[in-house]
Amino acid sequence: xxxxxxxxxxxxxxxxxxxxxxxxxxxxxxxxxxxxxxxxxxxxxxxxxxxxxxxxxxxxxxxxxxxxxxxxxxxxxxxxxxxxxxxxx
Length: 89
Description:
This protein is mainly α. Helices cover about 75% and strands about 0% of the residues. The protein has one domain. The protein is globular and about 45 Å long. The relative contact order is 0.18. The mean pLDDT is about 95.
């Protein structure tokens, strides 16, 4: 997918472009996912920022085991979501 863009720029573009079109506004989606995970685990709700950070950890784990550009692009996108979930946009 890279057209010379950095992995961070590509992740950013996905968050506000293709992924938003496919899945909706990211913070709202991650908030709902955090609520679902919490319900499954029988714990208090998990905030959208924490969900995004857990997804970063998933991508880091995958990258450690096998390099793939997608791991890094997605991790950057998840970090952007964590950032905006904390009201920083």
